[in-house]
Amino acid sequence: MTPVTSSAAGPGAADGTPNVGALAGDVARGAADASRITREGLAVAAARNAGVTVRTVHDVAGIRAVADFFADVWQTPRATAPYPSEVLHSLVHAGGAVHAAYSAGPSGERLAGAAVAVFGPPAERDVYSFVAAASASGRGVGFAVKQAQRLWALERGATTMRWTFDPLVSRNARFNLVKLGAVGSEYLVDFYGPMSDGVNDGDESDRLTVVWDLVTGTTRKDDPAEGRSAADVVRRAPDGGPLALGDADRLWCRVPEDIVALRAADRALALHWRHAVREVFTEAYADGLRATAMSRDGWYLLTRGPSPDPSESASEEQE
């Protein structure tokens, strides 16, 4: 009988004793493969549920279409798009990615959402997503684009993704903090300075940085409104109702139902809300609280606990 032979990397020793190190490696590789398949399946399912196909864009025409899409979302002339096609193309050439979601129609594909991500230092850990937008259809296009970004980043060794958004836009807060399970790591006062697009014109550009754990990518299941009714009112809102409620280790902060509509109808009142929420958040963050959830009726939940390192800010502008 031919003797069984093995190397240090083989499955067993010459006497048939299992090579524990090799078996452990096989188990680890199997777990990694299973995790990859799960992530790919989630991205595919998210796209299917949204009725879109998500892919990375590399060609000039495709990138120009994404730049035009962003211009339409932020209500600027396409000739002065907030993210010009040549800039997007350069980011792709530098190793970043433009993800675009397309829906099928009678006249062909239609762009329904897009996002742009680049690696930041350290390159093996963090990805910065600096712009994302989706058509306001409620079909889950934004979630599909984010899952595609997540898969792309994980395949390149990243473990976290960062971006910023306007904290007064409650639908984005709920998507980021609840649907994706990200955590607000820092509050940035007037981050961009004056903005002249059709969405933000006349307001101050406060932003909330969020950090998304790409490995877990867990949707929050707990109720952010639990305990709120028993909390004390600690500050009043510009409309006379409660703005902030608190207990021993939690804080709730209300934002306007639709800040974009309010800004268009009453710019002064919208700015009053901006300053009121800013005061609550800056004090809360100085006290060690972090935004961790958003209720369906427009209340942030801020809690204590470990928070991601905000030392490097992302700059995604999310619509």
Description of the molecule:
There is one protein chain. With 319 residues, this protein is an alpha+beta fold. It contains seven helices and 13 strands. Strands 1, 2, 3, 4, 5, 6, 7 and 13 form an eight-stranded mixed beta sheet that branches. It has a five-stranded antiparallel beta sheet with strand order 8-9-10-12-11. Strand 2 and strand 3 form a beta hairpin. Helix 1 runs antiparallel to helix 4, helix 2 crosses helix 3 and helix 6 crosses helix 7. 38% of the residues are buried. The N terminus is likely disordered.
Essential attributes:
single chain; 319 residues; alpha+beta; five-stranded antiparallel sheet; 7 helices; Acyl_CoA_acyltransferase
Share of helical residues: 25-40%
Rounded to the nearest angstrom, the radius of gyration is 23 Å
| Uncertain regions spanning at least 5 consecutive residues | 1-14, 20-31, 310-315
Q: β content, as a range?
A: 25-35%
Q: What is the helix/strand order?
A: HEHHEEEHEHEEEEEHHEEE
* Chain-averaged pLDDT: 84
Number of helices: 7
SS class: alpha+beta
User: What is the 3D form?
Assistant: globular
User: What can be said about the biggest beta sheet?
Assistant: 8 strands, mixed
Overall number of strands:
13
Distance between the termini: 70 Å
